[in-house]
Write a structure and sequence with these properties.
single chain, alpha+beta, Endonuclease, Chain A, At1g16640 B3 domain, 2 domains, 10 helices, globular
């Protein structure tokens, strides 16, 4: 309803050739726009209405959070085919974003570098299509890069161009072909060198941010990692995932994760069927534990007394029988097997956890629920 109202209010018809019409939806995104008024929200409306399942994206800069925000547009539509053309000029695109794109199913990735020629690759274009040729196409062009803030938080200006006419579809194809030819498939050594350059540039930017940053973040304010373009590591590529236990539910037996942490375990942040994973616990045994998606948009690990720390009690018990707040941090470490992880616990005030949290802070991957910190590295 809100999407259609926005469309009716802002759309107009542009005649490109005799007998051909395309529909134009200009969008000015404010920094405080509601979800349905953001670029991400409007794209979701088009994808839902037209069942788009193919996408081609050319962006000057990309972040991990931006890629995840864009993929969320297809939360209810499986992407059957995708192409990504990403710029590396000025070392702003995160290497982790490229790695994430390369790992997508049925995806093709190219990169562009024009800096050495004294130029910049600066397009911001996305083309949405369907394998069903009867469905029209959508072209999105404007100021927004492939970052979370650009798609859902900055002040941006974009235009949505929709057409069902074969002639205009051919025009969209030509636009994409001209862009795609500017890129090339990245070589391994090329990505390694870019990662080195990016790290140097990133360190300089971090120093600058400290000097000009706004008010410090409020304590105990919920902060999602993947809503921050500073995150330089995607959870699906992290080696370690951690979360403070705090007030562990179910008498200290059920540990809730933020939805984005589910990506570490190969779970979708938007939900899914419950899964059984194998965990190597502190006594050396490997046990099976269930992960279940909850209505509060969190994944819950259902533990039992086979976890030694759970059997001992993760939460202290007061003299009146009340449970206190746990001083433990749950640490999950990836193994070579996809559905097997090492599960351990360390004290909140331990040197080991201080080292883990410091590494997460350096990669921009520390988040905050209303009462607990979490992260990955």
């Amino acid at each position: 309803m809100q999407f259609n109202c926005l469309k009716q209010k802002a759309s107009q018809v542009l005649r490109l050739s005799k007998g051909a019409n395309v529909e134009i939806l200009p969008l000015i995104q404010r920094h405080d726009s509601p979800k349905e008024g953001t670029i991400q929200g409007v794209m979701e409306g088009y994808v839902h209405r037209n069942n788009y399942n193919c996408v081609q994206v050319a962006m000057a800069y990309a972040s991990i959070a931006g890629v995840r925000t864009f993929l969320d547009v297809f939360a209810n539509n499986k992407i059957e085919k995708s192409q990504w053309l990403i710029g590396l000029d000025d070392a702003i695109t995160q290497p982790g974003a490229i790695k994430l794109l390369l790992g997508l199913e049925n995806s093709e990735v190219r990169i562009v570098k024009l800096f050495e020629d004294g130029a910049r690759f600066h397009p911001k274009v996305a083309r949405f299509r369907s394998l069903n040729r009867m469905v029209g196409e959508l072209l999105v062009m404007g100021s927004a890069n492939l970052t979370n803030r650009a798609l859902a938080g900055n002040s941006e200006a974009v235009v949505f161009i929709e057409s069902k006419n074969p002639e205009e579809k051919n025009m969209f194809s030509k636009i994409w072909a001209d862009l795609w030819l500017q890129g090339h498939t990245p070589k391994r050594h090329e990505l390694s060198e870019y990662e080195r350059v990016f790290k140097l540039a990133s360190n300089s930017r971090k120093v600058l941010r400290k000097k000009i940053q706004d008010k410090p973040l409020k304590q105990n304010r919920p902060i999602k990692i993947l809503e921050n373009d500073n995150a330089e590591l995607d959870p699906s590529h992290a080696r370690v995932c951690w979360i403070e236990c705090g007030n562990v539910t179910a008498m200290g037996r059920e540990l809730e994760f933020k939805a984005e942490q589910g990506l570490f375990f190969g779970l979708e942040p938007t939900g899914g069927h419950e899964r059984i994973f194998r965990f190597r616990v502190s006594n050396g045994l490997t046990i099976n534990l269930k992960m279940k998606y909850q209505q509060n948009h969190m994944w819950r690990l259902q533990m039992n007394n086979n976890v030694p720390e759970v059997q001992r009690g993760l939460r202290p018990i007061a003299s009146n029988g009340a449970l206190g707040r746990s001083d433990e941090v749950a640490i999950f470490t990836r193994t070579k097997e996809a559905d097997r992880f090492a599960l351990s616990f360390v004290k909140l005030n331990s040197r080991e956890f201080a080292k883990i949290k410091k590494a997460s802070l350096q990669s921009g991957t520390v988040g905050q629920t209303s009462a607990r910190s979490y992260g990955w590295l």
